[in-house]
Amino acid sequence: MTNFTPFDAADYLDSDEAIAAYLSAALEDGDPDLFLTAVKDVARARGMTQLAKDTGLGRESLYKALSPGARPRYDTILKVLRALGVTLHAEPTARRT
Fold first, then answer.
1. What CA–CA distance (Å, rounded) separates 59 from 52?
2. CA gap 40, 56 in Å, rounded
């Protein structure tokens, strides 16, 4: 019998480039819960305790804000992303004709 360990994306988010690609893919999907899950994965990869210190938010508050179905405030997401060393940017989409 083969034993498999559960997949955890946080185990593979070991570089700024991997993190940026992961979050970009989550944003492209358009599902807010998927994006929150991706941010939570990055937060766990970087260390939730340190992130709590850097943002001034409690660990429990972070877990709650980054859970599927949560509706965190925009400023909370910005604090988290800044503390993770990530910025978001906008670019034009192809115009429909």
1. 5
2. 16
Q: Over its length of 97 residues, how does the chain's per-residue pLDDT go in tens digits? A: 888 889 999 999 999 999 999 999 999 998 999 999 999 999 999 999 999 999 999 999 999 999 989 999 999 999 999 999 999 888 888 776 6
CA–CA separation, 27 and 35 (whole Å): 6
Helical residues (DSSP H) of 15-73, grouped into ranges: 16-29, 32-46, 48-55, 59-65
Euclidean distance between the first and final Cα of the chain, in Å?
Answer: 56
Residues 52, 58 contacting (CB under 8 angstroms): yes
Q: Which residues are CB-neighbours of 7 under 8 A, at least 6 positions away?
A: none
